[in-house]
Amino acid sequence: MNETNTQYGGRPSLPMQGVPQPKRDEVLGLPRVHISTHPVMAHKMTALRDKNTQPPEFYRLVKEIGMLLAYEATANLALEPVEIERRRLAGGIGVTPILRAGLGMAESFREVIPDVQIWHLGLRRDENTLQAMEYYNQLPHKVDLQVCYAVDPMLATGGSAIDAINILKRRGIPRLSYVGIIAAPYGLLKLSQTHPDIDIFVAALDESLNDRGYIMPGLGDAGDRQFGTF
Ligand code: PRP
Ligand code: URA
Predict the structure, then answer these.
(1) Residue range 194-219: average pLDDT?
(2) Which ligand ends up closest to the CA of 132?
(3) pLDDT, tens only, 70-88
(4) Are 92 and 143 in contact (CB under 8 A)?
(5) Lowest-pLDDT range, 4-13, 107-116, 158-167, 212-221?
(6) What percentage of the chain has pLDDT greater than the value 90?
(7) Sequence-separated (6 or more) residues with CB below 8 Å from residue 174
(8) Taking a C-beta distance cutoff of 8 angstroms, is the pair 125, 167 a contact?
(9) Model confidence over 88-114: pLDDT tens digits?
(10) Average pLDDT, the chain
(11) Whose CA is nearest to atom 3 of ligand 1?
């Protein structure tokens, strides 16, 4: 870890330390940010956040919420004519689950659009620095996509989402979107400012990050809750 990343006493400084976190109201009107207002989404989010929801049910809910988000995020896809009066989705559709918590949401997109290409990308947030580290990459070299959706339930400091979009941009995909379940205002603002050319879809906007970079009220660790690794 370098000097600039270390506070006096050798403790790592975290991205959100020393800067005031934006309030919800300050990020609600950001361009290209879409926060779901669907009542069914709100209903399912209540069950997802419930501490008593166990991993099998949690995973099922992530997939259902992911399907609702997939409908919202794909509302503006381009169509091309097939025969007179018929149209189909133009070009390939890609989904990049940010491992591992994004896996359930990739399945949601697959339910909605069965022939999506799934491009796996492994990023792990270092719990001491909150920096994302790439550990797995199955992005193909041949790119023939109309759009690619990076999916991950949690947008906390925004580091993982920003890195994922950077990696996808280097593949030359014409259009990128981020789809998440819960965002903190801090991470949403960072992602929107760093990548103003992408659409961002989330099911809910929460209040803040705590001093460990967890979303408050949030739902805890989305990966652990999906896969039962407590
Ligand atoms: C979580 C989450 C995001 C990231 C969000 O993953 O799924 O990828 O943290 O935090 P950020 O916005 O501050 O980058 P984690 O790295 O814990 O990995 P996991 O999915 O394997 O649990
Ligand atoms: N990752 C999670 O799973 N939850 C958070 O609140 C922040 C990062």
Answers:
(1) 98
(2) 1
(3) 999 999 999 999 988 889 8
(4) no
(5) 4-13
(6) 88
(7) 145, 146, 147
(8) no
(9) 888 899 999 999 999 999 999 999 999
(10) 94
(11) 154
Ligand 1 pocket, CB under 6 A? 98-101, 123-125, 130, 132, 152-161, 187, 213, 221-223
Two tokens, residue 219: 């739902």
Query: In terms of DSSP bridges, do strands 87-89 and 79-81 run parallel, antiparallel, or are they unpaired?
Result: antiparallel
Span 25-69, pLDDT tens digits: 999 999 999 999 999 999 999 999 999 999 999 999 999 999 999
- For the stretch 79-89, what's the b/e string if a residue is b when 16 or more beta carbons lie within 10 angstroms of its beta carbon? eeeeeeeeeeb
**Of 68, 33, 21, which Cα lies nearest the Cα of 161?**
33
Q: Provide mean pLDDT across the span 182-193.
A: 98
Atom of ligand 1 nearest to the CA of 159: 14
Phi, psi of 147 (to 5 degrees): -160, 155
> By CB neighbour count within 10 A (0-12 exposed, 13-18 middle, 19+ buried), where does 92 fall?
middle
Residue of 124, 214, 225, 229 best suited for mutating to test ligand 2, as the one with most atoms within 8 Å of CB: 214
Residue 174 Cα to ligand 2 midpoint, Å, equals 29
Sole residue written with tokens 């008593």? 52
